[in-house]
Write a structure and sequence with these properties.
Cysteine Rich Protein, three-stranded mixed β-sheet, 9 helices, 38% helix
């Protein structure tokens, strides 16, 4: 028996999972994907397959996802969308002006802050206080220590609106959700993001604080950002932060590579070849 798609022979000795039959034709497991929610087997070109952050969904599960709603207009997204700072936006809202507090497109549901500026709907709610953010940073440090034995420093953490944070960035073109400021030895972070994203950003920036305190020289951006992304990715995986993991994996598939994705891929390849302990040993040797 041969696969109707790739024409390879289908034998139990080669494949551990059974073949799939559609419309009287049989397909080998290599040519079949699976919905990440219901685990239904899907044949590309035969079954309708929807993708979100590079992950396949059957039509029913895709439509049932509550989080597929535009953050700008609160309308369910059926077609194209953009992911901006971990929020989803329809094409119309994605092109709108950016909120000065969180940096996301404002969209159609607008509000105003105490200074009269137009802000997005999410930022009309009270932001997380510095105390809550400091507690989140403590949780991140403890989780990373348990996960890989890396002791991230107890650097001070301060909340800051998005537009103010960009002024602290050493790169004018960087759109930062958070950053480590060596001059102040502090992590500065936007307090308006969802909790899982906030903790992932804290993890990333605390790794930069660890680098500043432990590395003997200032290494290139691919090494610095690659390590921060690697620890953030492992942390998000260990905590079950599904959307964060999916966003990072989606970044790896982008056609335009960045220091973040190139560095992360470099250390993921090293982990596959030599093991995760070898990667951590390399970080500590720098």
């Amino acid at each position: 028996m041969k696969c109707a798609r790739c024409n390879r022979a289908i034998t139990d000795a080669v494949y551990k999972t059974p073949a799939v039959t559609r419309n009287g034709k049989t397909y080998c497991p290599r040519c079949v994907t699976m919905c990440v929610e219901c685990r239904k087997k899907l044949v590309p070109g035969i079954d309708a397959i929807k993708e979100f952050n590079g992950r396949p969904y059957c039509t029913a599960c895709y439509r049932a996802m509550d989080w597929l709603t535009c953050a700008g207009c609160r309308v369910k997204i059926i077609g194209d969308y953009s992911i901006i700072l971990r929020r989803l936006f329809c094409p119309s809202c994605a092109g709108s002006a950016r909120c000065p507090l969180c940096g996301c497109p404002i969209g159609k549901n607008i509000a105003r802050d105490a200074r009269g500026r137009v802000i997005c709907f999410f930022c009309s709610r009270p932001p997380r206080a510095d105390v809550a953010i400091a507690a989140a940073a403590d949780e991140v440090r403890a989780a990373v220590s348990r996960m890989c034995g890396l002791e991230l420093p107890a650097a001070p953490v301060a909340a800051m609106p998005y537009d103010e944070l960009q002024k602290h960035s050493p790169w004018n073109t960087l759109q930062a959700a958070g950053l480590y400021a060596p001059a102040e030895d502090a992590v500065l972070i936007v307090p308006y993001y969802p909790p899982e994203y906030l903790k992932a950003v804290l993890c990333h920036e605390l790794v930069h604080a660890w680098q500043f305190r432990n590395w003997r020289e200032d290494y290139d951006m691919r090494t610095r950002e690659g390590m921060a992304m690697y620890v953030e990715y492992r942390y998000a995986n260990s905590m079950g932060f599904r959307e964060e993991v999916a966003a990072i994996e989606s970044m790896l598939k982008e056609k335009t590579a960045s220091n973040y994705s190139i560095g992360l891929k470099m250390f993921l390849d090293m982990a596959r070849e030599k093991g995760e302990e070898a990667v951590l040993a390399y970080f500590r040797s720098l």
